[in-house]
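re: that chain from earlier
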Amino acid sequence: MQKGSQQTEEAKEKMSLAKKEKPTRYWKGKKFSEEHRKKLSDAKKGKPGNNQTKGKRPWNKGKKLTEEHRKKLSENSHGKNAGEKCTFWEGGKQPQTKIWRKRSVYRKWRNSCLERDNHQCQKCFSKEGLHVHHIKGWDEYPYLRFEIKNGITYCRSCHSKCHWDQRKGKVSHALTE
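^ sequence. v structure.
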């Protein structure tokens, strides 16, 4: 019988009767006999598992490394994947947005937008966790990056929803022109 296939009424009745005579959850609520539990326990003995290491100290706990050994470990691990050796290395460049957000021009723009919007979200009027959102995108419109008209204050959740709506193709703020 394939999963999802249609059954005749007669077949359904037979399956129902079979289930009533021999339920499939046979062991539910039942316990193993002492003899059977001992056999299970004996079968597990000598095999690795949590019970063998439980409560035992690791072989190296409390042992001190020599100064020489520490130095070797340090030399081998430090700088191994740092800088140019790292697989994610991109020539020491930082994302442009990260660089720009440290500049005073960006901070002035952000503070001006926050002051204009009375330091509150323009959707839900919350005053906590505020973000200033670029109405026209940072990458698509670089000449509008620091135009105060191009900023709107949102709380964290409204800002996330705004980006979600933009991905879905919806316009979520009234200030777009």
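The chain has seven helices and two strands.
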